[in-house]
Here is the input.
Amino acid sequence: MKTLFLSIILTGLLSPIFSQLKIGDKAPNFNLKNIDNSYVSLDKYRQEKGVVLVFTCNHCPYAKLYEDRLVVLDKEFKPKGFPVIALNPNNPVTYKEDSFDNMIVRAREKGFTFPYLVDNIGIYKKYGATKTPHIYLLKKEDNGFIVKYIGAIDDNPRDSENVSEKYLVNAINLLLQNKDPLVAETKAIGCSIKPY
Amino acid sequence: MHKLLFIAILTYCASQAFGQDVQIKSVNIKEIKERTKSTSDTIYIINFWATWCKPCVEEMPVIENIQESFKEIPVKVLLVSLDFENQVNSKLIPFIKKNYILNEVVVLNESNPNQWIPQVNESWSGAIPACWFIYRYKELFHEGQVTPDIIKHQLNSLLD
Here is the structure.
């Protein structure tokens, strides 16, 4: 009994640290405001084969380095059934650049072809995202969206010309062949999330 | 009078030190590790930061104050900047001069985060700021901003 009690306490203490979704977990739904003032929810993507979720923002240099690559990715994989959805979890009080108005400006400048949502209710926490950019690749299965890959877009943030491993593209391509990604988790550098 | 002269000399020295060209070395994780192994009595506190990272800049006074607060233990603070190499001259060096950063600053020369982040610590998600504490064979890691209490706690656990 004591052990049980102790383990309950321990689980309670440890859970914030291990709250990140794991590969194979069901992805939580969300319904968030897009830059066009409409609301976008994950459930609406039921007809797709999957979704590329990216926690990103305006201000972070690492997020900026990947904006163009996200647009290319969406153009290639939206027609194949894996569209991109971007979520900005940062509070504009911390970084003015991350405000709703600035998100609209940035998306226009960069020609975003995908939704860019305001995560002001802590969806990032449910996923366990810690930084921008942070990728969650989801595959649609019978019981919902399942996490198949977590981490970086590729292995060279600073120089897109010299990428040697395209982790995310490789993962999507394997999912398209009904296989699981060979590399399911990678580490990426990024800016810590400054939430609402 | 003496006091005044002393202050004048100090001011002059300080202005000389900061007026000089700041040289920033570029290092990789392996070189940082080798450096920490070169001494056995010093605690290394390696702070991963960047001038564009607001929480990093916010915690800089705490980091800069470490040596002042822990005089009884030899502590070496190494500020490992993730500023991009093409911004060293335009952003990093001006920041060091403007804020009178006294700790040694180096710029990280690594490209694949998936490779070098786990070399620092397996638990690190890759968000900065982050602090890496090394003392002899012991290592501790803290992701996120530090406070004087966190630093104290980490140093005490290393010395235990």
In short: The CA atoms of residues 24 and 106 of chain B lie 5 Å apart. The domain at 24-159 of chain B is CATH 3.40.30.10 (Glutaredoxin). Helices of chain B lie at 2-19, 29-37, 54-64, 66-69, 88-98, 113-120, 148-159. Chain B touches chain A at residues 50, 52-55, 82, 84, 111-115, 117-118, 124-129, 143-144 (CB under 8 Å).
